[in-house]
Design brief:
- The chain has about 425 residues and is α/β, with parallel strands linked by helices.
- The protein has two domains: about 260 residues, Crotonobetainyl-coa:carnitine coa-transferase, domain 1 (Rossmann fold, 3-Layer(aba) Sandwich); about 80 residues, formyl-coa transferase, domain 3, CATH 3.30.1540.10.
- It is built from 18 helices and eleven strands.
- A six-stranded parallel β-sheet has the order 3-2-1-4-5-6, sandwiched between helices. A three-stranded antiparallel β-sheet has the order 7-8-9, with helices on one face. A two-stranded antiparallel ribbon has the order 10-11.
- Strand 7 and strand 8 form a beta hairpin.
């Protein structure tokens, strides 16, 4: 059973995962993202970093000497430092494991074994431990030892091929989606796997251990909708389509007069009739070329050109308002400034102001998913390197000040 003390959020209520304690031996994005999700839902997360800190502390823009991303990336975590290459660190990790329900790591397969943190050693410390391992290609198979980051997972998972303009329209390389999507998706699957394994453990009542194996490549590959069954049955290879959707029209982004890209999704017959009327061309909906979705898909280039010419004569904000009044799904392509100001995000706590000791007042994204209608604020923001060394090592392992000083002197923490 969990032995962590439930930790309330700022509203005084414990999250649904309160009472679970998770150890993170993670770096960069995937494993820390998984544990952030678990921490957002109430779990106590202890993050182990090298003495120099997780690399993400240095990523992105800097504010007052710190990366703002870190505030979110390590929120709801207690951060300690350990040099895992030192033998003393192994014993500390195993001591911490004895107090934890789950371990999340994203080292290359076999790396923890080489550090003395084998599966047998981990389960000897906590026999019912759930171990979640995130790697590029998975824990077995011919590619298990190959290095990978999220971009490699996105490429092998088939996504990078699809995030491009249609074939023949550009010689530029396929574009990245703009965030570490492969890492984040793998983190989501790892968090789900941890919760599923813990649920099974509690249902069985026998304290069974579990190992969750998440590959970046497989996580991305799992998102490709019907691409694989279409290839297996028809031999068709899905191709990039730019801003459109190959099975529905009109659905695309159109540039307004002031340069704003507005996405319009009028791909059902009633919606297209509304759009055609708004454009002042209601007869378009009766033309054989555009009378139903299949016809519109076949003639999408001509249809997009018409909509594009109409949109180009209207400023973006006016265009959005006209489409909204007509009941046609549409929006500008939000920048982060648009997201931060969005009243829906604000009303649901998805954009919220947070006080961070390293940055002052700043913005954090809210918690997904909402449970019981609640979006709790973070219990803590990403701390300084080693901020929780004394609290964790004393509180869980019973080390005294002299013992911690000795570990610091020898470079273990």
């Amino acid at each position: 059973m969990p032995d962590a003390t439930p930790s309330p959020d700022a509203t005084g209520e414990a999250g649904p995962l309160a009472g679970l304690r998770v150890l993170e031996l993670g770096h960069f994005v995937a494993a820390p993202f998984a544990t952030r999700l678990l921490g957002d839902l109430g779990a106590e997360v202890i993050k182990v970093e090298p003495p120099q800190g997780d690399p993400v502390r240095q990523w992105g823009a800097r504010h007052q000497g710190h990366a703002p991303w870190w505030s979110v990336h390590a929120r709801n975590k207690r951060c300690i430092t350990l040099d895992l290459k030192k033998p003393e660190a192994r014993e500390i990790v195993l001591g911490l494991i004895s107090h934890c329900d789950a371990l999340v790591e994203n080292f290359r397969p076999g790396q923890l074994d080489r550090l003395g943190l084998t599966r047998d050693a981990l389960l000897a410390a906590r026999p019912d431990l759930v171990i979640a391992r995130i790697s590029g290609y998975g824990q077995d198979g011919p590619g298990r030892d190959k290095p990978a980051f999220g971009v490699i997972g996105e490429a092998i998972g088939g996504l990078r091929h699809l995030t491009n303009h249609p074939p023949g329209s550009t010689d530029l390389p396929p574009v990245r989606v703009g965030v570490s999507l492969g890492d984040s998706v793998a983190g989501i699957y790892a968090a789900l796997g941890v919760v599923a394994a813990l649920w099974r453990r509690e249902r069985r009542g026998g304290g069974s251990a579990a190992e969750v194996d998440v590959a970046l490549t497989e996580s991305v590959f799992s998102l490709l909708e019907g691409a694989l069954p279409e290839f297996g049955t028809l031999g068709s290879i899905r191709q990039p389509t730019g801003g459109g959707i190959p099975t529905a029209a009109p659905t695309n982004a159109y540039r307004a007069r002031d340069g704003i890209w507005v996405l319009i999704a009028a791909n059902s017959d009633p919606l297209f009739r509304r759009l055609a009327a708004l454009m002042g061309q209601p007869s378009l909906a009766e033309e054989p070329r555009f009378a139903d979705n299949q016809a519109r898909v076949r003639h999408v280039a001509a249809l997009d050109a018409m909509i594009g010419a109409w949109a180009a004569g209207i400023d973006g904000s006016v265009l959005e308002g006209l489409l909204e009044d007509a009941g046609v799904p549409a929006t500008r392509a939000f920048t982060i400034a648009d997201c931060a100001a969005d009243p829906q995000f604000r009303a649901r706590g998805m954009v919220r102001e947070v006080e961070d000791p390293l940055h002052g007042t700043m913005l954090h994204p809210g918690v997904v998913p909402r449970i019981d209608g609640r979006s709790p604020p973070p219990r803590s923001t990403g701390p300084q390197i080693g901020a929780d060394n004394e609290a964790v090592l004393t509180g869980l392992l019973g080390l005294d000040a002299a013992g911690i000083a000795a570990l610091r002197e020898s470079g273990v923490v």
